[in-house]
Amino acid sequence: MASDTSKHVVEMRNIVKRFGNFTAIHNANITIGRGEIHALVGENGAGKSTLMNVLYGLLPRTEGDVLLRGKSVHFSTPNDAIAQGIGMVHQHFKLAPSFTVAENIVLGAEPTLAMGRLNMRRAETETGELSKRFGLDLDPRAMVGSLSVGLRQRVEILKTLYRKAEVLVFDEPTAVLTPQETRELFATMRQLAQSGHSIIFITHKLREVLAVSDRISVMKQGEIVATIDNKDVTAQEIASLMVGRSVLLRVAKDEAKPGGRTMLNIRNLTALGERGENAVHKLSLSVRSGEIVGLAGVQGNGQDELVECIAGLRQPAGGKIEICDKPLGATPADNRALGLAYVPADRGGVGLSLQSSIWENMTVGHLPKFKRGQFLSIGDARARADELIKRYDVRGATLDKAAGSLSGGNQQKVQIARELSREDGSLIIAEQPSQGVDIGAIESIHRILVEMRDAGKAVFVISADLDEIFSISDRILVIYRGQIVADLKASDATQEEVGRYMGGLETPIVDTGASVKEPARVC
Amino acid sequence: MDIVEVLYSAVRVSTPLVYAAMGGLLTYQAGMLNIALDGFMIVAAFAGIATAFATGSLELALIAAVISSVLLAALMATFTFRFKADIFIAGIAVTFLAYGLTALLLKGVLGEDGVFMSNTIPRFSPIVLPFIADIPVLGRILSGHTILVYVAYLFIPVIAFALYSTRWGLRVRMVGEAPEAAAAAGVKVTSLKFQTMLLSGALCGFGGAYLSLAYVSLFANQMTAERGLIALAAIFFAKGRPLPTALVALLFGLATALSVRLPQVTGAAPQLLQLIPYVVTVLALVIVGVRTARASNKHGAWKFALD
């Protein structure tokens, strides 16, 4: 396949991209065939996005050549790339929620009548036809804001197809999807490939790579270290190519020895979501000392509201929460005093102040320790932060550097260091602990959480990533429409089984209160 | 008190508010808080009256007013987009610059302190609308205004059409709500924002010319009397939709008209009654505030003090 250049729709030759003195991409070579699904895998920061941004015209290349259908091209803006048939399905959807599906799809290429008047009728029929042709069922008049995440992704895909894209770049498309939606997406990708589209699939989920791609290119530190046919490779091999050493995909840990004490006890909790719906509905669960409980679920099934209630960031509408046998306090500070250590998913918003220095971020929440009368002992605080940086192996950190200058994984380590270094923190809530964190750092974060468990703390992990849930949990809970629909021992459960519960395909087996089957209501 | 007369003067009084509000809502829809509407209007008011005084031509005066205000808008846009200044700070700077510059030129060019007026300045004459003038009551309210009043109200449907029925309008609104989505779709975000800012300047140009050449026939320092900010309040209240924004502007205008007429009938202290339009504005903003607070903090979510 590699020898016949006429088959290659895209060929990137010896691409080099430098930012000042820093070389982000060294001599990358990649070819994409017509009708091929080509996976581009690598850790965060390996250069996958940078390489694709070069292709898409978002970044100018320093050296090298991009050939499109055999001809050398230079894109200075995404517009040029779009005009030449390259489309990007962004990880963070670029959609306007209060506009319709059709308006979002035609934006930038709107059909018009005389005098610049919009031809909305044509826009709607065209988007309707397009969605039927590719089996991506969508109502052109629906508001994007009212669509589920999976459907919004369809809008993104249709946007590129509306512009007649032949090469589609999917940037981490499955991060926000249910297992079922992921399967549908893969079906769509295969169908697109069959109709002659070429697909570049950026991901770091190895199972998905093996499930859908024809060829796999592995990136490491700005280089493409290997391009392999899918049938010749295993997940373990790709993982070692990505990291450069063999990686434990499952954290090595002993059997949990749960203590007798219930550190987190939730009974019949009801909480309202942003639109006033019952996001959490009569939910009950408990986490004991010495165990790691993983909460699996598709995003938007009440996890956020549940965690916000525990952290004190949201007022429950009913039910009760007990942290270390004491009822929930009135403010986040009260809950921390009860023993809650909280590692939020929203690192930049809730977890850290990205503009503030690392030592300041590590000191917040520990202020009483450094109090000298009305003043703060900055020297002591810095000394402690310095020690934490070493103990938690925060790479690239110096005390005065802004937290925002660190990579995602190291930012995560900063907030984990701050939260887990509290002696009184006996309930640890870790929300999406490995989101945006590379494989090497995921391993060490998981190890830290296991250490905490072994030290007798209760650990509650909320994650949308099933691999993470299975890698770390002793017990797995599944949340669906604001209720716990499954409570499984991790060693006995399979991903398929949990996936079915996540998608609501299985009836609840656990008794979580009086009205388990009642669906979440929207007011 | 003659109600019809109060309504007639409400239409008149609301005119500069409508101009400013239409200008401000274009930038609002494009996702910018443009607080320099007063600055745009005051340079236009000055350029208008100075040109009318020098040339005796109202047409030239109107053109000068619009050009000067568009130039100021271009300066504001340059601060914001070229030099990446915070739009709020740029707005304050531009407004103060406009106040200071017009006061300086008033002294330097026209040789007056504070107020300039002259009998030689031409005035816009009232136009009696055919047919409409014959309608009982309504005719007396709507007819007999100057051309600039009619133009102001004509801009309302024009802008509604531009925003909601054209490709340009769809793009402007998308830029306002989801600039990244617009950019990803190949829409030139900065260029569109620049355009709305210039149009905002043009509309304020009409508003300023109206103030110094039609509403009254004089120029006074800071004569816009924060009409730009009141217009902003109307925009926020109506969430930037053209017709509702204009209606709120009319409501503010009615409040002003009442504050002028009421002292004659009630005998209450005029100083007190002059507060009416500002009280109405504050009430409108309180409603906006409560509405936003409810929308963002409902259902028990934690309120961050610094939000």
Automatic annotation (TrEMBL), chain A:
The keyword Translocase applies. It is found in: Cell membrane. CDD domains: ABC_Carb_Monos_I, ABC_Carb_Monos_II. It is a peripheral membrane protein. It comes from the Bacteria. Pfam families: ABC_tran. Residues 10-246, 264-506 form the ABC transporter domain. GO terms for cellular component: plasma membrane. Keywords: ATP-binding, Cell membrane, Membrane, Nucleotide-binding, Repeat, Sugar transport, Translocase, Transport. Its main location: membrane. One of its GO terms (molecular function) is ATP binding. Belongs to the ABC transporter superfamily. This is Simple sugar transport system ATP-binding protein.
TrEMBL record, chain B:
It comes from the Bacteria. One of its GO terms (molecular function) is transmembrane transporter activity. Keywords: Cell membrane, Membrane, Sugar transport, Transmembrane, Transmembrane helix, Transport. The keyword Nucleotide-binding does not apply. It is a multi-pass membrane protein. GO terms for cellular component: plasma membrane. The keyword Iron-sulfur does not apply. It is found in: Cell membrane. InterPro entries: ABC_transp_permease (IPR001851). Pfam families: BPD_transp_2 (PF02653). The chain crosses the membrane at residues 6-28, 35-54, 60-81, 88-109, 121-139, 146-164, 197-218, 230-255, 275-293. This is Simple sugar transport system permease protein.
